[in-house]
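Bug report (template v2)

What were you trying to do?
Predict the complex of my protein with zinc ion.

What happened?
Run completed; filing so the output is reviewed.

Input:
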Amino acid sequence: MNQFLQNYLIAIVVFLLMLIFLLMGAMIFILFKLLNKPKNEVVAEIPTEKPVLKVSPEKLKLVEEPIVEKYYCIHHKEAPSVGSCLICEEVFCVDCLVDHESMHFCKEHFRTYANFKWKQITDTRTTPDTPEDGLYIYNFKRDLWLNKTIPSFVMTHYKINIENDYIESFIQLNVREDDVDKLILELEKYKALD
Ligand SMILES: [Zn+2]
Ligand SMILES: [Zn+2]
């Protein structure tokens, strides 16, 4: 009877000890997890967040600035642009852009357009196979404006070639009548350099 009680007590003690071990194991496991988790998060936060924050303001500025210039009127910084002037190629809002016979000018260059007689000096054909053939005309026009403030504008005339099923375009550079002779020569030189 005594032995039975002893065995019984031993069994209870062993059971309690096992329970304590299990609980301790569980606590250690939970503690280990709790201690490890924040560590991992901190380690992960430092390399990912900080460099992103460091780089992004500069990057955002670089990305934002041309967009602001490109899509907002150069006279009204809050007004979205609706198109660009054929002569200066700046973008303008609906109040600043003049629509004339499906051509667009800023107010200043609409006056330029209206005050002079214009003559078309090129009719350069490009096709889908040779899209770069007229590129030198656009570059010439841009150089004229940026370097010499000589106004000119490019019109593109499209023709659908039904037989071969492709679109031809004709790049037409228009210059002031007084500039015609001089600019025809300059354009020839420019094309030769190109
Ligand atoms: Zn303009
Ligand atoms: Zn405007």
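What did the reviewer find?
The pocket of zinc ion (ligand 2) is lined by residues 73, 75-76, 79, 92-93, 95-96 (CB under 6 Å). The chain is about 55% helix and 20% strand.
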